[in-house]
Amino acid sequence: MSASPSRLPAVFSESFRFFFLAAGLFAMLSMGAWLTWLYIHWLGGAVPNPTIAVAPHLWHAHEMIFGYSAAVIAGFFLTAVPNWTGSPPARPSFIMIAGGFWIAGRAVVWYAAHLPPVLVAVVDLLFLLTLVARIASDLRRNPKPANLVLLGLLFWLFASNATIHAEWIGFTADTTQTGLRMGLFGLAAMISIVGGRIVPAFTRNALMREGKTEILPVTRPLVDRIGIAMSVLMAVTAAFDMPPIATGVLAVAAALANGTRLSGWGWRQVLHSPILWSLHLGYGLLVLGYLTVGLAALTGFPGETSALHLLGIGGVGAMTLAVMTRAALGHAGRELKVSTSIAIAYTAIAFAALIRGFGTWFAPEQYYLVMFASGGLWVFGFLMFVIDYWWLFVAPKNTVTT
User: Fold this and answer.
1) Per the confidence metrics, is the pTM higher than 0.90?
2) Most buried in the list 94, 152, 348, 382, measured by CB within 10 Å?
3) For residue 1, what pLDDT is reported?
4) CATH topology of domain 10-399
């Protein structure tokens, strides 16, 4: 007999509970594993009989995109899409099954050296495939073009991961880096779309509640469309071997368009509210990430790897943390106000992005110090998140006070 929903742990009662908590925990654990490997390497040692089947930096990149980020996306989409479409929310049994697929994916990639590559691919891809199918089913009720673009990008993440596994299985010769870039820019495009909805909307709502109606966020439909189009094009062209000048121009265009969008959203009016300035900060780091990717392609500064990390840690990491903290409070019926520790967490992730993005350029001889400082700030930021939000995620809903 299957357990009734009431007998399942409260963490499975709502999608954001399980997946946001899983994302926070995995952000720390996976980064901790990466930093441990770096520390051993720094000391001149080596890991005997590693369980992963690929180079550690590839495992690290894969798990940040398809482990951490995919969990955040699942928690957000499975919670938000039913609200957008009027479809029923995911049942606890579905959350438990989908969560099991996500955990299984992390396990098989970690133990890939001892498992058949095809099995690793099938198990790891199952989670995103399940998520795509669920969101597609929900969107049938209200198939707005903007939402269908998000569904397309979600499938793009699945295709990106499949591209990586194709090389790991042996079907292709050199597609891991391509798949990683497809995945990262696909995430950035999602943030461009979703951020363009929620940042000005949440800012406007907060200012109106405070009676500050004289200066409200301004959205420009044409600029919005250009910013989104440039972001989506960045994701699509990542699948091709584009000349650096083409990538650079497109990335700079994405930065300018999305930066123009951000400039009208009233960031100066929310500097007193961490739960709001964190969203503006995350989107600003997305813009900076696009700009540095463009500059790296056109000039070499600050280097392609550094630029991609700035986009990933800042644009994706800072924005997803901001969204998780805001969305969890809203859906739990809590006051939309974060603690000082969460404000510090926002700042820690932002500095982690800046240190990793520019540190190795300005101090190349301090590579390991830069890695440990950036990674340590990332772990610290998500530790603050998990500590602060633990009870909200695991306690029965009727025991969480407003």
Assistant:
1) yes
2) 382
3) 39
4) Cytochrome C Oxidase; Chain A (1.20.210)
